[in-house]
Structures are given as C-alpha cells and as structure tokens.
Amino acid sequence: MQNKNLIASTVINLFIFVASIAVIISYFFGNLSPEVDTPVQKFNFFTTDSNLLAALASLSVGIGNILILKGKLDRLPHAIMVFKLMGVVSLLLTCITVMVLLIPIYGAKMQLGGTAFHMHLGAPLLSLISFVFLDGFGKIKLRNALWGPLPMLIYGTVYLWQVVVIGFKNGGWFDFYALNQNGKWYLSLIIMTSGTLALSIITLLLHNIFIKKSNKTNKSSDSLEK
C-alpha cells in the first residue's frame, strides 16, 4: 500500500513540476497575457510565484520519494513536508482568489483558458490531492501551519509597497488584484492573512487525518500478511 502511494505521489509531484515549469518557460516564448509586456512582468503575479514555489516543493517530494523507493531514505524529511504545505497553501490561495475575485472582474475565459487552467486550477487541485492523500507517512504538528501564510506575507509586502506606497502613477504596479479598493488595503491584508492561515490549518489537519487512517490500514494489511 505504501509503495503504491509513493509511486502515485511521485508521478503527480513530478508532473506538477514539469507542467508548471513548462508553462513558466513558455512565457519567454510568447505565451503572455494582455496585461503584461515582458515575460519578467509575469513574476509580478502571485500566480506565477506560487506555482514556481509549489513546483520546487513538488520536485523535492518527488526526489524524496524516489530515494525512499531505493531504500536510501526511511521517510520524507519534515522540512520537505512543511515546504510542500507552503506550496499547497499558496496554490489554494491562488485558486480561491481567481474564483472569488478575478473571474468576476476579468472573466472565466481569461482566468481558466489555455495554460492559465493549469496555473489557476489544475496545479492547485493536484497539489492538494497529493499532499492530503499521498505525500509522506507521518503527521505534521499543528504549529507548522504558521508556515503556510509566509509566501503570501512576503508577496503581500511587495504588493502593498508597489501599489500603495509607490502607486501606479509613479511607476508602481497596477492594483490588478483589486486589494486596495477605496484605500482599504488594510482590510484586504487582514482577510488574506487570516484566510491563508485558515487554509493552512485545514490542509494540515486533512493530511493528518488521512495519514492516521492510512497508517491504520497499512498496519492491518501487515498483520494479515503475517
């Protein structure tokens, strides 16, 4: 059972890495959306940054799984699982932001068409599925949920600096996430921070619940085999 989970986890995580990196590379070969002029500007968006983060986390899980299958590791290191949690939470935040904020403003075709489908919906769902049901064999302590919002807080600091402090008229970023409507950026910050922390806690708890059930199933299977 564990080997099947390991193989499935490895396949999904390596697919996420390859597909996400392929989409990011495609930006440098003309796959640009109307709101940007250069490939580098795509990194102004949390979508690109969160998918890059999650891709690297998925790669670390995939490599770790391969080492386990080869007998060189007993289990995924705790740091890798926390890294993956950060990636999953960031992608879930991207997905929810797209569904709740961006589709009503820009339309579903723009937000879910072409390669945006993978970045906005496909990668978040696959990452969530692998983390909750397949990745790792151990529980993660609840306090590690505090790591989940870190990427959002780092990006949010840069976003607020560009949008609020510098301002679009002075060469900063346009408020493309509409988080500073009527100057209420502080409300957006509170909502985004608390919402992301809630996502992190829920995701971590789901992982722990399933892992607990999976471990019981594996122990029962081992007993029957003996």
Word description of this protein:
The chain has 226 residues and is an all-alpha fold. It has one domain (2-220). The protein contains 7 helices and no strands. α5 packs across α7 (185-225). The longest helix has 41 residues, at 185-225. Residues 220-226 have low confidence and may be disordered.
Observed structural traits:
226 residues; 70% helix; disordered C terminus
Question: What's this entry about, in short?
Answer:
This protein is an all-alpha fold and 226 residues long.
Helix-residue proportion: over 70%
Strand content: under 5%
How many strands, what sense, and barrel or not for the largest sheet?
Answer: none
H/E element order: HHHHHHH
What's the SSE blueprint?
Blueprint: H1 2-26, H2 46-69, H3 78-106, H4 108-112, H5 116-133, H6 150-166, H7 185-225
